[in-house]
Design a protein that fits this description.
By secondary structure, the chain is mainly α. It is about 85% helix and about 0% strand. It is globular and about 80 Å long.
Amino acid sequence: MVKKNGVVSVMGLLLITKILGFIKLRIIAQLFGATHDLDIFWAAFTIPDMIFLVIVGGSINAAIIPIFSDILYDKGKKRLDELFSKITFVFSSVLIILTILLFIFTPQLAQWLICSNKAEVLLGASSNLVAGDVSRFTNIMRIGLISPFILGLSSFITAYLQVRKQFFVTSLAPIFHNLGIIVFSIVFVGFFDRGIYGLAWASVIGSFFHLGVQIPLFLKYYKENDLPPLFSIKEIFKDSAVVKAIKLATPRILSILGEQFNVIVNTVISFTLTPGTLSAYKFAYSLHMVPINIIGSAVAQVSLPDLAKVGKHEDKVEFKKILDNALQFSMYLVLPLVAMIVILRLPIVRLTYGTGEFNWQDTLLTSMSLVLLSMSIIGQTIMQIVMRAFYALKDTWKPLIISLIGIAINLASVYFLTNFFSHYYDWRIIVQQIFYQISHANGAGVLPVVQSFFVDLSEWMTTRGDSPLAIGGLAVGVSMTYVIESIIGFIYLNKITSVKLITWESTLKPLFIKLLNTLIMGIGMYFVFKIFDLQLDTTRTIWVALLTAGTALYGSISYLLGSYLFKIKEFESIKKYLVGIIKSFIIKLKKKNA
């Protein structure tokens, strides 16, 4: 069963992390807006982020935590410390070598990534880069290359502590990471006027904060059995657990590498769009990740050690219970947030970023990207849990296959859809014209109109227009990719176990009821939002905040009432948990006053 008290505490810390993340992004929006300079910053950090995600992010959940968990339960704490030393040495060495190579060849990489004439010819569009952009990209990327090693070391410590069930401190790490970036962005950019270089150094300092907050607790546990002795490289690679970790991590590393290739492609495409669109997309992407990071990550983090433990003993019935509980609990919390994002996209963006250099055009682009990205929240949340289920079963090859399919979908969709949305101002008129022609045509005239529509559609998807709303194509591509990946993930999970993990009665039917409850909530929210919008002066921030809060409050009440009427299991569990907390508090209060 999902430990709801553990999930709630982790979710609370992740919520604080996201609030600080919003503050961080609001400060960046205030300092830069959705501008070309900020586009260069995001693009320059693409490679450092990729190194971290591929080498470390691809290994932690897929291999490191499951193996650490096995070793702790089977061999004890001393063997865990020994294995931690060996695995950290291996992966840190890879990070150092990659960082040095990329530092040397950064100028060549910059030319390939943001000045690729071949990419421009392939995409049928010209770049918006200007003189000096390559030099700035190179310098910022070299600064950013410091982060992967620091965050990598910190992430291995996170894995070690999570296996020891120390989720509190590991959840503090991203909070301190954001705090470091916030403080030093204000100092370097706001006070010393260092521009995007100041933002780059603030990001690096934030990674040191991420590491520093975990070190005291890590050393406390790590020193319990005395420090492990030094090992020779030959001895490290003779360790069967190290070899197993590398074997398990390899498919996930390849999978993440493919996903990051998608990010690079999206970045290259963004430089053929209107300046500032990449920044608008990044701002929207951060907003849509809130429910995924807070809910999906919390449930997945807490569930993985239990899934790994049960998976090791091949108790498929218990495995199914844990997986079902994780999926249902996360969906119960995520679905209403998706509805709120869709209905309240404009005020959310205005309240989060609408300050300083962030203008109305930036707001429109960001809110459009946000609503199109919101469709991927369900898919990404499900995939966080489904991927952990594969890792717990020591199967990292099927996630690779799923990711490869996702890469193909993304590559095709972002090309065709960015072209499609770049004709945004044209295709609405053409669609209206088609409906007009069909309504005024006789039976013989309908077929030519339909054929004309498909000819126009083909042209819209293969030629680039000049609308900045082309960035919507990136958002829709991401949404399509994750939804399809989650469906394939379900199919594969059902095939690799003797017990049918995904069933109509225990999995799909409860999800359908939650979706119905969310739909009822969303329809009501839409009308409440429209009523408030007509009555309030939304040119003022205070009224925008009241509009958002009032509509969200109605949505929350509607969702909880629907949960009660539909007898949704998760509602009852949360109610019992909260009632238990209140009763405990009252008892303690009475004892204190006695």
